[in-house]
Amino acid sequence: MALGLLAMLFWGYQMWWLRRPTRASATSRFSAPVGRGSLRQLSQPVLFLIVVLTAAIGWVIPILGLSLLAFLVADQIWIRIRQRQPRQQPPAATEADDQVLVRQE
User: Fold this and answer.
1) What are the domain boundaries of the chain?
2) What is the rounded CA–CA span in Å between residue 33 and residue 31?
3) Tens digits of per-residue pLDDT, 13-62?
4) Which residues contact 58 (CB under 8 A, 6 or more apart)?
5) CA angle at residue 46 from 74 to 35, to 5 degrees?
6) Among 51, 52, 54, CA closest to 40
7) What single DSSP character describes residue 85?
8) CB atoms within 10 A of CB 54
9) Is the pTM of the predicted complex or chain greater than 0.85?
10) What is the predicted pLDDT for the residue at 85?
11) CA distance readout (Å), 73 to 36, 58, 95
């Protein structure tokens, strides 16, 4: 079990390293990470199966289940905080910016 956990940690870090945000997407052999909310696009039977399997694994391995539950709670708190913050608008273009754009064309 410990060797399996170490292997998962190693390969997880390796996958992150290969797909990290600093890599240029044109040179990367791997696709971009899956976007937030991707699970919502799955069909209900598949989503139900994922939830049941996750709950079963969390029940069999309680430490994993508790840490997963803590992660889900922290993620929901983070989402709620981000939703309450007002979206920042980019600064409005000035007349000087318009003149620079005209000169570049």
Assistant:
1) 62-86
2) 6
3) 888 887 776 655 555 566 666 677 787 888 999 999 999 999 999 999 99
4) 64, 65, 66, 68, 69
5) 45
6) 51
7) S
8) 14
9) no
10) 79
11) 16, 15, 47
